[in-house]
Amino acid sequence: DGGITQSPKYLFRKEGQNVTLSCEQNLNHDAMYWYRQDPGQGLRLIYYSQIVNDFQKGDIAEGYSVSREKKESFPLTVTSAQKNPTAFYLCASTSTWTAGSSNQPQHFGDGTRLSIL
Amino acid sequence: KQEVTQIPAALSVPEGENLVLNCSFTDSAIYNLQWFRQDPGKGLTSLLLIQSSQREQTSGRLNASLDKSSGRSTLYIAASQPGDSATYLCAVRSGGATNKLIFGTGTLLAVQP
């Protein structure tokens, strides 16, 4: 079945440590996204990528980094500069926006819950 | 700046009741509006997507409407069931070609058996 796989499901970070969250999709989607979800605040966009080897900052990119070396993969690194990393992280993907396909829904993975040790 | 609001934040209803969830947005220049369901500790499942040119979309017991001019959307759930218990989020796609979504904070629905 096609879908988005996020791993691990739970992750713990020690102070000063960088951690990487994995996101893989087999939907042949061009665009991929990372969101952060905090209680009572909805989802906020961290980074997004529309094509391989290209990505843009979202609304809350500070303390995070990404790469997009393969179409299927969009890993997110939570760096030590992110002072409040405890949250639920969601990865999503969709077909690239083009005329005629501008209304494609976003598909989501099951998320990674990150906590501080 | 687009802002999306969902009211109420939480709702509890008895099984079998019809219910309406509300979503409002401040900028009417949207491409589409999407309703999602989120179960505890899980990702989001897309329920319905309404294009800006449409007034409503239906899927089974779900019906979503869109009034762009007033900046409002409603999700109608008919004959609610305990399995409908979840958080429901709406999101709008505004401007640009990046398919960025702006999310509301969600409505937590509990359907009591």
How would you describe this structure to a colleague?
The complex is a heterodimer of chains A (117) and B (113). Chain A is mainly β and 117 residues long. In chain A, 0% of the residues lie in helices and 50% in strands. In chain A, strands 2, 4, 5, 6, 9, 10 and 11 form a seven-stranded mixed β-sheet that branches. Chain A is globular. Chain A starts with a strand and ends with a strand. The model of chain A has no long low-confidence stretch (mean pLDDT 90). By secondary structure, chain B is mainly beta. Chain B is built from no helices and eleven strands. In chain B, strands 2, 4, 5, 9, 10 and 11 form a six-stranded mixed β-sheet that branches. Chain B has a five-stranded antiparallel β-sheet with strand order 1-3-8-7-6, with no helix packed on it. In chain B, strand 4 (32-38) and strand 5 form a beta hairpin.
List keywords for this structure.
heterodimer, A: 117 residues, mainly beta, seven-stranded mixed β-sheet, four-stranded antiparallel β-sheet, globular, B: 113 residues, six-stranded mixed β-sheet, five-stranded antiparallel β-sheet, 11 strands, 0% helix
- Helix amount of chain A, in percent? under 10%
Count of runs of 4 or more consecutive helical residues of chain A: 0
What is the number of helical segments of chain B per DSSP (H or I, 4+ residues)?
0
Largest Cβ-defined interface: A-B, 31 and 25 residues
Radius of gyration of chain A: 14 Å
The averaged pLDDT of chain B comes out at 93
Shape of chain B: globular
What overall geometry of chain A do the principal axes of the alpha carbons give? Answer: globular
Estimated structural class of chain B: mainly beta
Portion in strands of chain B? over 45%
Main beta-sheet strand count, sense and barrel state of chain A: 7 strands, mixed
Class by SSE composition of chain A: mainly beta
Number of strands of chain A: 11
Poorly predicted ranges of chain B: none
Total number of strands of chain B: 11
**pLDDT < 50 runs, ≥5 residues of chain A:** none
Instruction: Please outline the major beta sheet of chain B.
Output: 6 strands, mixed
Element order, helices and strands of chain B? EEEEEEEEEEE
Strand content of chain A: over 45%
Distance from N terminus to C terminus of chain B (CA atoms, Å) equals 41 Å
Q: What is the H-and-E element order of chain A?
A: EEEEEEEEEEE
